[in-house]
Design a protein that fits this description.
Blueprint: E1 2-4, H1 14-17, E2 19-22, E3 28-35, E4 38-46, E5 68-74, E6 80-86, E7 91-99, E8 104-110, E9 116-123
Antiparallel strand pairs: 1-9, 2-3, 2-9, 3-4, 4-5, 5-6, 6-7, 7-8, 8-9
Length: 137
């Protein structure tokens, strides 16, 4: 991730962000949906189906397909913010979602020291075929 400063996000209506998104490296599809007033994200397809990069050895073998990686609240500015789990390193960060038009979503994660990184996810037009959701390792 590239280090960036915190950016103000434009107001983001939930219906504009719901759907399936491809991560920047093309390694996962993340489904965004409303859940109890929050914006929730669940892994629906991923190249590496286990949490093998988690710093906690007890969690390294757990399956991450179907894992909820965030449930964010909308703040007064309209941005969606809250903890976000990063399967690339097994860490949880302070997250923020910023839509960039209809088909791009900037996803930012910050450490407690306010060092931030972000990446742009792109909207997936079609749902993932069921055969692709079954990963083997």
């Amino acid at each position: 991730m590239v280090l960036t400063s915190s950016l103000a996000a434009p107001s983001a209506r939930a219906e504009e962000m719901t759907g399936t998104w491809l991560t920047a490296q093309g390694e996962a599809h993340i489904k965004l949906a409303k859940c109890s007033g929050k914006m929730c994200a669940t892994i629906v397809w991923i190249k590496s189906p286990v949490d093998d990069k988690n710093p906690d050895p007890a969690k390294r073998g757990r399956k991450i397909m179907g894992m909820r990686i965030f449930a964010m609240d909308q703040d007064p500015s309209g941005a969606w913010t809250g903890p976000i789990y990063n399967a690339d390193d097994g860490m949880t960060y302070k997250g923020r979602l910023s839509p960039r038009g209809d088909n791009e979503l900037e996803v930012q994660g910050c450490t407690d020291n306010n060092l931030c990184g972000s990446e742009v996810w792109t909207r997936v037009k079609d749902e993932v075929p069921a055969a692709q959701t079954q990963n083997k390792k």
